[in-house]
């Protein structure tokens, strides 16, 4: 038997930001991979059990193509095939895109499933919706989490 004190245990690279948040009866493990290039490669290391993905877009107009590429990689990954996706963008400036513009910029036009209670049972559709909110508008944030919570079991 090996004494662990004699061996080096490799450290897992932690994302720059992570925390646990509880909203209602749902526990969220939040990870920010914003500064990591090709974040799709490391998501699996932190998301062994994933009930949903909240993809936060906080980018200037020049960075939307990169955000689109990352999101497309996640949406096409088999490990995320049936996982609900909430795409969320905070708009600190009036120049940020509307929900419709954000859908276009991220290549999601016609791919969202609808807000409110949408019955997707029996379809191949993955729950996917885009929400845009002002940082100070708590209701817009709550609407996004409420939408997502209906798909978390």
From TrEMBL:
Pfam families: Arf (PF00025). Keywords: Endoplasmic reticulum, ER-Golgi transport, Golgi apparatus, GTP-binding, Nucleotide-binding, Protein transport, Transport. GO terms for molecular function: GTP binding; GTPase activity. GO terms for biological process: intracellular protein transport; vesicle-mediated transport. It is found in: Endoplasmic reticulum; Golgi apparatus. Transmembrane segments: none annotated. One of its GO terms (cellular component) is endoplasmic reticulum. Its main location: endoplasmic reticulum. Belongs to the small GTPase superfamily. SAR1 family. This is Uncharacterized protein. It comes from Quercus rubra.
């Amino acid at each position: 038997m090996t004494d662990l004190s004699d061996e080096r245990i490799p450290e897992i690279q932690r994302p720059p930001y992570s925390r646990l948040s509880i909203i209602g009866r749902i526990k969220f493990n939040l990870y920010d991979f914003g500064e990591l290039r090709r974040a799709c490669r490391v998501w699996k290391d932190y998301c062994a059990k994933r009930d949903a993905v909240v993809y936060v877009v906080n980018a200037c107009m020049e960075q939307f193509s990169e955000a689109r590429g990352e999101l497309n990689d996640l949406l096409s990954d088999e490990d995320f095939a049936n996982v609900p996706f909430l795409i969320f963008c905070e708009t600190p400036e009036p120049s940020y895109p509307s929900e419709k513009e954000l859908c276009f910029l991220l290549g999601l036009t016609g791919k969202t499933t609808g807000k409110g209670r949408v019955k997707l049972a029996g379809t191949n559709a993955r729950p996917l919706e885009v929400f845009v909110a002002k940082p100070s508008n708590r209701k817009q944030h709550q609407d996004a989490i409420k939408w997502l919570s209906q798909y978390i079991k």
